[in-house]
Design a protein that fits this description.
Elements lengths: L8 H13 L2 H5 L13 H6 L10 H5 L31 H10 L3 H9 L6
């Protein structure tokens, strides 16, 4: 492996965790980082038996049927990605954009977001 980050946010977060733990050099020869996107889902590497352990954001793990998800990393090394919504001052459909942002806060949408492994709050 030539670098310690793949193409997605999970890899970038994992590289920071390895640095925080002081194990970056040791992990260089062992870690496998996917290219990001659907091809980079570590669950697929697990299914193909290319890796023994996979660490990725929960929704990305949940997207691959047939793997065992054992739980989150310990809280002291856990890194969370926060998603926010914003609207451009030049938006062509302000009403539609605001409707989407509002919809994402409804109980129905929040239930789906949580069911897909994300937190709302």
């Amino acid at each position: 492996m030539s670098k310690l980050v793949g193409g997605g946010q999970s890899g970038a977060n994992l590289a920071k965790i390895f640095e925080k733990l002081g194990i970056t050099e040791a992990m260089l020869a062992k870690a496998v980082f996917g290219p990001g996107g659907p091809e980079g889902l570590i669950g697929n590497y697990l299914l193909r038996k290319e890796v023994e352990i996979g660490i990725q954001q929960l929704p990305e793990l949940m997207a691959v049927p047939g793997i065992d998800i054992v739980g989150p990393l310990p809280p002291d090394i856990q890194m969370k990605t926060v998603f926010s919504a914003g609207l451009s001052a030049n938006a062509k459909n302000v009403e539609g954009a605001n409707a989407l942002i509002h919809f994402l806060t409804t109980p129905k949408a929040v239930a789906v977001i949580k069911a897909k492994g994300m937190e709302v709050g």
